[in-house]
Design a protein that fits this description.
There is one protein chain. The protein has 209 residues and is mainly α. The chain is 53% helix and 4% strand.
Protein backbone atom coordinates (compact mmCIF):
# COMPACT_ATOMS: atom_id res chain seq x y z
CA UNK A 1 0.00 0.00 0.00
CA UNK A 2 1.29 3.46 -0.87
CA UNK A 3 2.10 5.80 2.02
CA UNK A 4 -0.52 8.37 0.95
CA UNK A 5 -3.25 5.72 1.21
CA UNK A 6 -1.94 4.42 4.54
CA UNK A 7 -1.82 7.90 6.00
CA UNK A 8 -5.36 8.58 4.76
CA UNK A 9 -6.55 5.37 6.41
CA UNK A 10 -5.04 6.63 9.66
CA UNK A 11 -6.78 9.97 9.25
CA UNK A 12 -10.08 8.21 8.48
CA UNK A 13 -9.68 6.12 11.63
CA UNK A 14 -9.14 9.27 13.70
CA UNK A 15 -12.31 10.81 12.24
CA UNK A 16 -14.29 7.64 12.94
CA UNK A 17 -13.19 7.46 16.57
CA UNK A 18 -13.97 11.15 17.00
CA UNK A 19 -17.54 10.55 15.79
CA UNK A 20 -17.90 7.49 18.03
CA UNK A 21 -16.75 9.45 21.07
CA UNK A 22 -19.12 12.30 20.28
CA UNK A 23 -22.03 9.84 20.20
CA UNK A 24 -21.04 8.12 23.46
CA UNK A 25 -23.19 9.10 26.44
CA UNK A 26 -22.06 9.70 30.00
CA UNK A 27 -24.20 6.75 31.11
CA UNK A 28 -22.16 4.43 28.86
CA UNK A 29 -18.77 5.32 30.34
CA UNK A 30 -18.88 2.51 32.90
CA UNK A 31 -19.97 -0.16 30.37
CA UNK A 32 -17.72 -3.10 29.47
CA UNK A 33 -15.77 -3.21 26.21
CA UNK A 34 -14.21 -6.03 24.14
CA UNK A 35 -10.84 -4.82 25.42
CA UNK A 36 -11.10 -6.72 28.69
CA UNK A 37 -9.13 -4.39 30.97
CA UNK A 38 -11.06 -1.28 29.95
CA UNK A 39 -14.53 0.08 30.52
CA UNK A 40 -15.67 2.76 28.04
CA UNK A 41 -14.15 5.60 30.08
CA UNK A 42 -10.76 3.89 30.29
CA UNK A 43 -10.92 2.97 26.60
CA UNK A 44 -11.50 6.63 25.73
CA UNK A 45 -8.51 7.51 27.89
CA UNK A 46 -6.41 4.90 26.09
CA UNK A 47 -7.49 6.27 22.70
CA UNK A 48 -6.45 9.75 23.83
CA UNK A 49 -3.11 8.36 24.99
CA UNK A 50 -2.64 6.60 21.66
CA UNK A 51 -3.42 9.86 19.86
CA UNK A 52 -0.78 11.67 21.93
CA UNK A 53 1.71 8.96 20.94
CA UNK A 54 0.75 9.31 17.27
CA UNK A 55 1.32 13.06 17.52
CA UNK A 56 4.64 12.70 19.36
CA UNK A 57 5.87 10.19 16.80
CA UNK A 58 5.25 12.62 13.93
CA UNK A 59 6.71 15.59 15.81
CA UNK A 60 9.84 13.75 16.96
CA UNK A 61 8.92 14.13 20.63
CA UNK A 62 9.44 11.32 23.15
CA UNK A 63 6.25 9.44 23.98
CA UNK A 64 7.63 7.47 26.93
CA UNK A 65 5.96 9.64 29.58
CA UNK A 66 2.48 9.39 28.04
CA UNK A 67 0.31 7.13 30.23
CA UNK A 68 -1.25 4.02 28.71
CA UNK A 69 -4.65 5.56 29.42
CA UNK A 70 -5.04 9.28 30.04
CA UNK A 71 -7.16 9.89 33.15
CA UNK A 72 -7.09 13.67 33.62
CA UNK A 73 -9.64 14.62 30.94
CA UNK A 74 -13.13 15.34 32.34
CA UNK A 75 -15.87 13.05 31.05
CA UNK A 76 -17.66 15.87 29.25
CA UNK A 77 -14.47 16.82 27.37
CA UNK A 78 -13.31 13.41 26.13
CA UNK A 79 -14.64 13.79 22.59
CA UNK A 80 -13.43 17.38 22.26
CA UNK A 81 -9.96 16.45 23.53
CA UNK A 82 -9.71 13.62 21.02
CA UNK A 83 -10.98 15.79 18.14
CA UNK A 84 -8.35 18.44 18.91
CA UNK A 85 -5.61 15.82 18.97
CA UNK A 86 -6.83 14.35 15.68
CA UNK A 87 -6.52 17.78 14.04
CA UNK A 88 -2.98 18.17 15.35
CA UNK A 89 -2.05 14.67 14.18
CA UNK A 90 -3.25 15.36 10.66
CA UNK A 91 -1.20 18.56 10.51
CA UNK A 92 1.92 16.85 11.89
CA UNK A 93 1.73 13.79 9.63
CA UNK A 94 1.03 15.57 6.33
CA UNK A 95 4.65 16.74 5.74
CA UNK A 96 6.14 13.28 6.39
CA UNK A 97 7.44 11.08 3.61
CA UNK A 98 7.18 7.31 3.52
CA UNK A 99 10.84 6.63 4.32
CA UNK A 100 11.31 9.35 6.94
CA UNK A 101 12.73 7.83 10.12
CA UNK A 102 10.60 8.27 13.25
CA UNK A 103 10.58 6.80 16.74
CA UNK A 104 7.27 5.07 17.39
CA UNK A 105 6.36 3.81 20.89
CA UNK A 106 7.60 0.34 19.87
CA UNK A 107 10.91 1.59 18.47
CA UNK A 108 12.51 3.34 15.48
CA UNK A 109 10.93 2.73 12.07
CA UNK A 110 9.85 4.50 8.90
CA UNK A 111 6.89 6.86 8.89
CA UNK A 112 5.07 4.34 6.68
CA UNK A 113 5.49 1.54 9.21
CA UNK A 114 4.45 3.84 12.06
CA UNK A 115 1.32 4.87 10.17
CA UNK A 116 0.47 1.20 9.75
CA UNK A 117 0.78 0.59 13.48
CA UNK A 118 -1.30 3.59 14.48
CA UNK A 119 -3.97 2.73 11.93
CA UNK A 120 -4.28 -0.82 13.27
CA UNK A 121 -4.43 0.44 16.86
CA UNK A 122 -6.98 3.17 16.13
CA UNK A 123 -9.28 1.03 13.98
CA UNK A 124 -9.25 -1.83 16.49
CA UNK A 125 -10.02 0.37 19.48
CA UNK A 126 -12.63 2.16 17.39
CA UNK A 127 -14.29 -1.23 16.94
CA UNK A 128 -14.08 -1.77 20.71
CA UNK A 129 -15.82 1.54 21.31
CA UNK A 130 -18.46 0.97 18.63
CA UNK A 131 -19.37 -2.46 20.02
CA UNK A 132 -19.42 -1.27 23.62
CA UNK A 133 -21.69 1.69 22.84
CA UNK A 134 -23.93 -0.10 20.33
CA UNK A 135 -22.83 1.95 17.33
CA UNK A 136 -22.15 0.74 13.76
CA UNK A 137 -18.81 -1.08 13.73
CA UNK A 138 -18.05 -1.60 10.02
CA UNK A 139 -17.52 1.97 8.78
CA UNK A 140 -13.76 1.44 8.50
CA UNK A 141 -13.91 -2.01 6.88
CA UNK A 142 -12.10 -0.64 3.83
CA UNK A 143 -9.14 0.42 5.98
CA UNK A 144 -9.24 -2.75 8.09
CA UNK A 145 -9.19 -4.89 4.94
CA UNK A 146 -6.01 -3.14 3.85
CA UNK A 147 -4.48 -3.66 7.32
CA UNK A 148 -5.14 -7.38 7.54
CA UNK A 149 -2.28 -8.57 5.26
CA UNK A 150 0.41 -6.86 7.36
CA UNK A 151 -1.14 -6.68 10.83
CA UNK A 152 0.76 -9.64 12.28
CA UNK A 153 4.05 -8.33 10.82
CA UNK A 154 3.60 -4.87 12.32
CA UNK A 155 2.95 -6.29 15.81
CA UNK A 156 6.16 -7.99 16.99
CA UNK A 157 5.91 -11.12 19.11
CA UNK A 158 7.77 -9.38 21.94
CA UNK A 159 4.78 -7.04 22.39
CA UNK A 160 2.22 -9.84 22.69
CA UNK A 161 1.06 -9.95 26.27
CA UNK A 162 2.56 -6.48 26.84
CA UNK A 163 0.93 -4.00 24.45
CA UNK A 164 -1.21 -6.51 22.54
CA UNK A 165 -3.07 -9.69 23.44
CA UNK A 166 -2.58 -12.97 21.62
CA UNK A 167 -4.75 -13.45 18.51
CA UNK A 168 -8.20 -14.94 19.02
CA UNK A 169 -8.33 -18.27 17.14
CA UNK A 170 -11.30 -19.84 15.40
CA UNK A 171 -13.94 -17.12 15.76
CA UNK A 172 -16.18 -16.33 12.79
CA UNK A 173 -16.46 -12.64 11.95
CA UNK A 174 -18.49 -11.02 9.22
CA UNK A 175 -16.48 -7.82 8.95
CA UNK A 176 -12.86 -7.02 8.18
CA UNK A 177 -12.76 -4.72 11.22
CA UNK A 178 -13.75 -7.53 13.57
CA UNK A 179 -11.20 -9.86 11.99
CA UNK A 180 -8.56 -7.22 12.64
CA UNK A 181 -9.74 -6.94 16.24
CA UNK A 182 -9.39 -10.72 16.60
CA UNK A 183 -5.76 -10.48 15.45
CA UNK A 184 -5.12 -8.16 18.39
CA UNK A 185 -6.92 -10.45 20.82
CA UNK A 186 -10.17 -8.48 21.10
CA UNK A 187 -13.53 -10.27 21.04
CA UNK A 188 -17.17 -9.80 21.99
CA UNK A 189 -17.44 -13.14 23.77
CA UNK A 190 -16.48 -11.65 27.12
CA UNK A 191 -19.26 -9.08 26.89
CA UNK A 192 -22.93 -9.32 27.89
CA UNK A 193 -25.24 -11.69 26.02
CA UNK A 194 -26.74 -8.96 23.84
CA UNK A 195 -23.38 -8.15 22.28
CA UNK A 196 -22.61 -11.83 21.69
CA UNK A 197 -25.95 -12.16 19.91
CA UNK A 198 -25.06 -9.17 17.74
CA UNK A 199 -21.82 -10.88 16.73
CA UNK A 200 -23.63 -14.10 15.77
CA UNK A 201 -26.19 -12.19 13.73
CA UNK A 202 -23.51 -10.26 11.85
CA UNK A 203 -21.50 -13.41 11.14
CA UNK A 204 -24.47 -15.15 9.57
CA UNK A 205 -26.08 -12.20 7.76
CA UNK A 206 -25.94 -11.66 4.04
CA UNK A 207 -23.45 -8.95 2.96
CA UNK A 208 -25.06 -5.77 1.68
CA UNK A 209 -25.82 -5.81 -2.03
Amino acid sequence: MQFDQQRQDYFDALAWVTALMEATTTAQLTDATPCAEYDVRALAGHLIGTAHRGLGTAEGVSTQAIPHAVTDVPDAQLAAAYAALADRIRAAWKPLRSDDQVRAPWGPCTAHTAARGFTIETVTHGWDLAIATDQPSTKLDHAAERCLPFATDVIPDRLRGVMYDDPVPGLAAASATERLAHLLGHQRQALPTRLQADAKREATSEPPG
